[in-house]
Amino acid sequence: MKNGALHDHLHSKSNVEKGSSFINSWKVRIKISLDAARGIEYLHNYAVPPIIHRDIKSSNILLDSNWAARVSDFGLSLMGQEEDRDYQPTKAAGTVGYIDPEYYGLNVLTAKSDVYGLGVVLLELLTGKRAIFNGGEPMSVVDYAVPAIMAGEVGRVLDGRVGQPEGSEGDAVDQVAYTAMHCVHLEGKDRPTMNDIVANLERALALCEDSHGSISSGPISIVAD
After folding, report:
1. Angle 208-98-57 from CA coordinates, rounded to 5°
2. CA distance 161 to 23
3. Model pTM?
4. Identified catalytic residue from 35, 55, 114, 159
5. Is 143 one of the annotated active-site residues of the chain?
6. Which residues 6+ apart lie within 8 Å of 88 measured at CB?
7. Which of 64, 177, 187, 198 is 20 to 30 A removed from 150 (C-alpha atoms)?
């Protein structure tokens, strides 16, 4: 992909120091979130058979020449059974910081495991922090951001390279933050479905469009390996 991985734009040394990346706007970050969510929604609900990715993370979200986000790297993915696709006993696999704690503890894979990984990516986009970062000692972006979101203090943990959102853009960022918080619930049953996540992110992007004018969203966001 021409513009590389989302992870590099968020966390590469040059972007951290210069704050020069194209993605340093809330509108673009929310569009990237929506593109990625639509790709995962397709895997869960429209692929035949359904697919659970198992390794949703910012380095597996690639950006094309139009900055549309595409979900990539299906090396750990598993095919679901159409009649009972949600529960699969399987040894936990994935990446530290993104792996669903319920899946890791119980070795039971569900589509909600991908939801957890996406929630971590949303928190990366909001905070600019890595999934696991060193804040004096190793800390997860979930532990860093969720308490502030729960307290209604989203602005306290937002990525300073983008700046504080105002007006309807602030409402859009709040929408993404609360969606992310629900995605990373410890128990899968308490997490939203991909349909719900896509709907929330569509509303968030619409709020940004009200604030800044329209921005086109990409087609279905999948990259075949």
Report:
1. 55
2. 10
3. 0.88
4. 55
5. no
6. 52, 78, 80, 81, 108, 109, 110
7. 198
**Residue appearing with tokens 């429209």:** 46
Closest CA to 180 of 18, 42, 5, 58: 58
C-alpha to C-alpha distance for 154 and 3, rounded to whole angstroms? 29
The 3 state secondary structure assigned to the chain is CCCCEHHHHHHCHHHHHHCCCCCCCHHHHHHHHHHHHHHHHHHHHCCCCCEECCCCCHHHEEECCCCCEEECCCCCCEECCCCCCCCEECCCCCCCCCCCHHHHHHCEECHHHHHHHHHHHHHHHHHCCCCEEECCCEEEHHHHHHHHHHCCCHHHHCCCCCCCCCCHHHHHHHHHHHHHHHHCCCCHHHCCCHHHHHHHHHHHHHHHHHHHCCCCCCCCCECCC
**Domains in the chain, ordered, with CATH?**
6-212 (1.10.510.10)
